[in-house]
UniProtKB/TrEMBL annotation:
Pfam families: ADH_N (PF08240), ADH_zinc_N (PF00107). GO terms for molecular function: NADPH binding; oxidoreductase activity, acting on NAD(P)H. It comes from Baekduia soli. Residues 61-371 form the Enoyl reductase (ER) domain. The keyword Metal-binding does not apply. This is NADPH:quinone oxidoreductase family protein.
């Protein structure tokens, strides 16, 4: 699977000039397809003006460093699919990109955006047909745009009835949660599953999927109000995310057994108390690091207790089997359409992108934020 940044692109805007009183039939068709605000005009002929609208960073920093702008549009490359974006799913990692903290030696042309949904404009042989609704996994960013060109094996189809706005909230967090619960956690009936940040997008998905698998879920969050949200998702027990009391709280909640599986998207100070609460033969799954703090582990403790610690990243699964994410994504979509899985989604217009980042960083957000783009 190729590791490639999604390329932001606008389709060609076709502009014509009129000869005499009226345009020809073909010119009228061209004009009907041209987005509002097309610039320039050709005399007596049609002119192709390739443009794109995307988010650029002037510098790393607070949310106001992001701005929507226009620029030259790259062409669809070999093995790529051109997609008109209708909705953008926001993730905590987007804020890290904006701050310049996502990668070492990160450049300003590495822009946020890891998942978008829309419909196909162009594709190559064997790709989805134009008009097909799809989700694009922008593994290396670049998704904050109204049109993108992405490798075909990063483009996943939506099942009938799934709207792009809803799909944009499901892939990164939904597929990650699916892998944590089923592929790596192997959660089964009666297991105790500890989920951190259980009122957030990934945490909430994990709670619901674990409960659907028949597990008993111990949810953590930073406030009583968020714990109540976790209970609505299906948590059996709730514990405040306090490193000083976490181990004892989980042990008490599980009747001394401990957690068979831990799904941790926070890390930092919660890691070691969670490890101490892990049962014999337990599986510890690292699905994120919202705390952005390191954690230390004496691996010698794993051997006598038969425990494992595993990192979960959708991109690594996709590298091994490019078709696997579509299977997991289809399962998530089916559960949402059946009403068994209820993602908590807040939609905002794309123009409010800075406010959306502020909301994510305030840590007051529950669920997922999706930006909706106005149609061209």
């Amino acid at each position: 699977m190729r590791s490639q940044r999604c390329v932001a692109r606008r389709p060609y805007r076709l502009v014509t000039s009129m000869t005499g009183d009226a345009t020809t039939a073909s010119a009228r068709a061209v004009l009907a397809l041209a987005p509002v605000g097309a610039v320039g005009a050709a005399r007596d002929a049609a002119v192709l003006v390739p443009t794109r609208r995307y988010v650029a960073l002037d510098r790393f920093g607070p949310p106001d460093v992001m701005r929507w702008t226009t620029g030259p549009a790259p062409q669809r490359g070999e093995g790529e699919v051109l997609v008109a974006v209708e909705a953008i799913g926001l993730n905590f990692a987007d804020t890290m990109v904006r701050r310049g903290e996502y990668r070492r030696d990160q450049s300003l042309d590495f822009t946020p955006g890891f998942e978008v949904a829309g419909h196909v404009l162009e594709s190559g042989d064997g790709g989805p047909a134009p008009g097909t609704p799809v989700l694009v996994f922008c593994e290396n960013g670049g998704g904050y745009a109204d049109t993108i060109s992405a490798p075909a094996d990063h483009v996943f189809t939506l099942i009938e009835g799934m709207a792009p706005r809803d799909a944009a909230a499901l892939f990164t967090q939904g597929v990650t949660a699916w892998y944590a619960v089923h592929r790596y956690g192997q959660v089964g009936e009666g297991d105790w599953v500890l989920v951190h940040a259980a009122a957030g997008g990934l945490g909430g998905m994990s709670v619901q999927l674990a409960a659907l698998a028949g597990a008993r879920v111990v949810a953590t969050a930073s406030t009583p109000a968020k714990l109540e949200i976790a209970r609505r998702y299906g948590a059996t027990e709730t514990v405040l995310a306090d490193p000083e009391t976490l181990t004892a709280g989980v042990r008490a909640a599980t009747g001394g057994h401990g957690a068979d599986v831990v799904i941790d998207g926070v890390g930092g100070d919660l890691f070691m108390p969670s490890m101490r609460a892990l049962a014999f033969g337990g599986r510890y799954l690292v699905v994120g690091s919202a705390s952005q703090a390191p954690a230390m582990l004496d691996v010698r403790a794993l051997m006598p207790r038969g425990q494992t610690v595993t990192g979960v990243l959708v991109a690594r699964v996709a590298e091994q089997d490019p078709s696997e994410p579509q299977r997991a994504f289809d399962e998530i979509q089916r559960l949402v359409l059946s009403g068994e899985l209820r993602p908590d989604v807040r939609t905002m217009p794309a123009a409010e992108i800075a406010a959306a980042h502020e909301l994510i960083e305030s840590r007051s957000l529950t669920g997922k934020v999706v930006l909706e783009l106005e149609p061209a």
